[in-house]
Structure formats: C-alpha cells, structure tokens
Amino acid sequence: MIESYDVGGVELERPFKARRLNHVVWYYRDFNATLRFYQGLLGLKLMDCIDSKNGPPAMCPFLPTPFFFMTMGPDMHNLAFVPETVKQTFDGRHDDTTINHYAWDVGSYEELRGSLRYFREKQVEIQEVALRMPGSNYAVYYYDPESNMQHTQSSGEVIGWQGTSKPLAAWKVMKWVRGPNGELDEAIPSDEDLTSQALLTLEGARKDTGDHSLNPYRDLLVDIKKELEQNRFNVHGSFLPRPFKLTKLTYLAIQSEDPEALAAFYTRINGFKISAKTKDAIYLRYGADHHGLVIYSPESPDVINKKDKLVRTGIQLRTYQELKSALVYLRDNGVEILGKGRSFPGGEYFVDIMDPEKRQVRLFFYLEQVGWDGTTRSPDRWKPLESLPEKAEVSEDTYNFEHLSAYSF
Ligand SMILES: [Fe+2]
After folding, report:
1. Ligand 1 centroid distance, CA of 383 (Å)
2. Whether pTM exceeds 0.90
C-alpha cells in the first residue's frame, strides 16, 4: 500500500512538497575575490555577514572571514559562502566537496515539520534542526547517502524596499540550532510579530536598529562599486550596472560514483521526478523546471573537476539577449569562459564560466517546462549546439518561468 499524507487538503505520498531550490552554500578561501566576482561582476547583492563578532560562540572560532549571504532578488540569500575552515566541523565528510549545503523551499511550516517526521521515519540522517538563522528560516538539515548536506525550509526572510536585511537587534531573538534530535515547535509566530516585538522590547534595541551585520564591510562594497559598478547599460529599457540581470537560482549538478542509487534517494525521500537519463547523467525535477538537480557519473566530460562533488550551478537570466551580452561583458572583464551553446536534455542556452575558486557556474536562458501530465521532450528532439545562434528558438514554454524585474531588491 502506498502511504499518503494530507498536505493542505491534498493527499500526497509524503507530508511535504519541495517547491523551489532556494539557496546553495559553498565553501570559499578568498573573501575579497569571491565577493568581487559575485557582487561586482554577476550583480548579486551582499545581505548579511556572520563573523567572529556576531556569530554563535560555537561557530566563531571557524570564521577567520565571514560566512556571507548574497541574493539576486527578494530572498535574503540565494548563494551563501562559508570559509573553508568550517569543513573541520564535518569530520571529513566534506573533504571532497565545495558544497556546504543546498536548500529546498517547502510550502509551509507544517510541511517542514512533516519533512522532519518523514525523514526520521525513513531513517534519513538528520544533521540539525534549526530555528531562525539569519534569513529567518526554520530548517531541517539532512544528509543524502553520500554526505551531501541539504535542508528543507520555510519562512525565509524577504527583502523589502529598503534593500537591506534585518538589523542586528533582530538577531537577538534567533535561536540558531537544536541539534539532530531537536524538535520543531507545533506552531510559530510570524516573522513580523517576532521581529517587531524584539525591536520594541529589548533594552536599547531601538537605537541598535542601525547596527547591521554589514557595517564592517561597507568600505569593501564601496570599492567594488567604484571598480565595477560605475557604468550604465541600457538593458531592455532599464539602466543597469551590467548588461544582464540574474533572475533565478535554478539547479545544481553534482557527481556520484553511483548516480542510480543516489537518484533513488532523491525520488524516494525528496519526492523528485526523473525528467531524463543519458549515458552519464540523471536529470531530476522538483517542479516545472526540467531539472532542479542533475547527478553525473564521474566519467562525464561535464565533470571537469573530478575531486569536487559539485559539478556546476545553473542560474537563469531574463532574456536570451542578456545571455549573449553577459558572454561579451564577462569575457571583457577577464572571466574564464568554459563553454557556450545549447544543451539537452532541458534545452538551455548557456555560457559556462569559472569563478575565482574554480567552480563552474552556468548562466543560461530557457529551460524546458514540464506540464500537468509530466511528459518531457523526447530524445529525437534534443538538438544541442556548440555556439550561441543569433536568435533563440521559440517554443510553447518560452518565457514560462519565474521572472524578477530589473530592480527587485
Ligand atoms: Fe541554508
């Protein structure tokens, strides 16, 4: 008999549904180079820094430089970077990866609690139950069988018109972590209730609201702005500091010695569907995007760094024109271009670049959207290209994806 769980009035096979890849967290070595690349060249925005002055005491000894959070839109973070020294706290489990973790949005706090119960029922290894970290998310951290760490989450912090995250005074209500055997309370106050209460009632909090985790780093941000954000490009009618705008963190590609076994974990536990299989990769989806997770075998030519479980991360741009402009802009600014063209399955037009830590990032336009009946493009319609054509092909699902306006901070 197939188990079923009520999820908001619908019977599903598990008590939660992953809706979106919310963020990815990587290890880094060079703070200035990483920040300059992602803020100055790619246009993400630094939102918060956990450092040895404001972090939880257990974490502080491992933060010679900050654990920092960046966004490309209204989420407090889509990419975050943790110093490589933090690997020491994982007892060798992260020695072969530059990924600290990745995070899936579920639909509600109730689903998040459901995910914790479900993981325990299925003997999934829980790493930590976390409450209101910077970013305000409640989270259940868990491992897949190959020690890739990830978490489900709900209640993420949203960035409003001021373009900043919460002041340090609001961090005083954070509870951080409860360990692997921790529980989640049955219900939680809204972020607004909790934060405004904290800002009003904590002694001196009102005058502290200007005290922000980014304050020690503002001069560095000004330097990046002076160096890389003085130009203005007319991007489809808006003047922006670079000729493109990143719009969505869409997928993550990892490698495994046994892609079949690992994919089985993601279909059984995370509830993902398989969109396609090739001779050296399995493409999985959590929603309408053709893939949200790709698992390569190490023999694949796409796996350029055999020692890193991370293969690449896919970030979507708003238009095809912006992708072509990004190629020119990034090449002119000295970024290493690894490849370009169109790849299948999925059909994205892409430019693959290398970040300062030798990580592959794929900027792309278009990804096949999977509809109500779950069918995907058949292999006879896969037509890969090794260059970017003048115009992108149009199909029924063109522009059917999450879109952020030029000014979404
Ligand atoms: Fe996270």
Report:
1. 36
2. yes
Nearest Cα residue to 255 out of 290, 302, 213, 314:
302
Q: What is the pLDDT of residue 190?
A: 82
CA of residue 150 to ligand 1 center, whole Å: 7
Residue-wise pLDDT tens digits, 197-228: 767 766 655 666 678 999 999 999 999 999 99
Q: What's the rounded mean pLDDT across residues 16-38?
A: 97
Distance 374 CA to ligand 1 centre (A): 29
* Domains of the chain, start order: 5-230 (3.10.180.10), 234-381 (3.10.180.10)
Q: How far apart are CA 283 and CA 294, in angstroms?
A: 5
Give distance in angstroms: CA of 329 to centre of ligand 1.
31
Centroid of ligand 1 to alpha carbon of 127 (angstroms)? 12
Structure tokens at 35: 């920040």
Q: Measured in angstroms, how far is the CA atom of residue 328 from the centroid of ligand 1? A: 33
How many angstroms does the Cα of residue 24 sit away from the middle of ligand 1? 7
Contacts 24+ apart (CB under 8 A), 261-269: 261/145, 262/144, 262/145, 262/146, 262/295, 263/295, 265/144, 265/145, 266/144, 266/293, 266/295, 268/122, 269/14, 269/118, 269/119, 269/122, 269/124, 269/144
Q: Contact, 277 vs 235, CB < 8 A? A: no
Contacts of 311 (CB under 8 A, 6+ apart): 253, 254, 255, 294, 296, 302, 303, 304, 305, 360
| pLDDT score at 201 | 67
